[in-house]
Design a protein that fits this description.
With 242 residues, the protein is an alpha/beta fold. It is built from ten helices and seven strands. It has helices at 3-7, 9-15, 17-33, 51-57, 69-79, 114-123, 144-148, 157-167, 182-189, 207-224; strands spanning 41-45, 61-66, 84-87, 99-105, 125-136, 169-177, 234-241. The chain has a seven-stranded mixed beta sheet, with helices on both faces. The N and C termini lie far apart (35 Å).
């Protein structure tokens, strides 16, 4: 994956309208649907550089598993011992658990064997524990962005529902998101601009644009408090181990 994607991850998480909206939506669903026990244990896979790791660390004892050692070293210098960080990857290089909450944000699409990854996470989840997942949606939206991030695939809602059920999860909610901005995403991703060597080009938009788009994502988050969305550029799910 383009090194710049790692290096800008935390700043984008803190300021970019899409990252901010996604983070707030995830936390909304966790706080609404996860009944945390006393002294909960949390496992996040692949989110070492994310602001949301800092949010999760305030909700329980957090372990983050991250495949990139350089990122672990950089993040450890910023957050100190607020949460534990281990070098590893799906499906096998994970702590045994069991955990009360497991999170996997925009990681499954990077994994060669997504079925084995979900089965491994299910095995590490305490019975009654919650699993929260986000992935990019619709293979026909494939673009240079997916190439530079080394995605293997994008998903549709029925595919994620089937994969989660096959792994043993009971789905509580599963919805598309980035729905209100979906036409803009489609227009952006379907431009015929296949580069010889794609580069990671995501940056924070100008302040007025970023503020307006943050408002759109906030409105969508309110709608998602009421109904599931029929289409969007990403999917979010919360499921339980029976």
């Amino acid at each position: 994956m383009d090194r710049r994607a790692y290096e800008t991850h935390h700043d984008l998480d803190a300021r970019h309208f899409w990252r901010v909206g996604k983070r707030r939506l995830i936390l909304d669903w966790i706080d609404r649907y996860w009944i945390a026990p006393s002294e909960p244990t949390i496992l996040d896979v692949g989110g070492c550089a994310s602001v949301i790791a800092e949010d999760l660390s305030a909700r329980g004892e957090l372990i983050v598993v991250e495949p990139d050692k350089q990122t672990i070293d950089e993040v450890r210098g910023r957050v100190g011992d607020r949460f534990a960080m281990l070098e590893g990857s799906l499906p096998d290089e994970l702590p045994e658990g069991p955990f009360d909450l497991i999170t996997l944000f925009d990681v499954l699409e990077h994994v060669d064997d997504d079925r084995a990854a979900l089965a491994s996470l299910h095995a590490r989840l305490r019975p009654g524990g919650a699993f929260v997942l986000t992935v990019p949606a619709f293979q026909w939206l494939w673009s240079d962005h997916d190439v530079v991030l080394e995605h293997r695939r994008r998903y549709r809602r029925p595919e994620i529902a089937s994969l989660l059920a096959e792994a043993g999860f009971e789905v509580r909610r599963l919805s598309y998101y980035t729905t209100l901005l979906f036409p803009a995403v489609v227009a952006s991703r379907l431009k015929p601009r296949r580069a010889q060597t794609p580069e990671y080009r995501v940056s924070v938009p100008p302040k007025p644009v970023n503020a307006a788009m943050t408002g759109v994502m906030a409105l969508e988050r309110k709608l998602l408090g009421l109904v599931d969305m029929p289409v969007g550029s990403s999917l979010i799910a919360i499921a339980y181990r029976r």
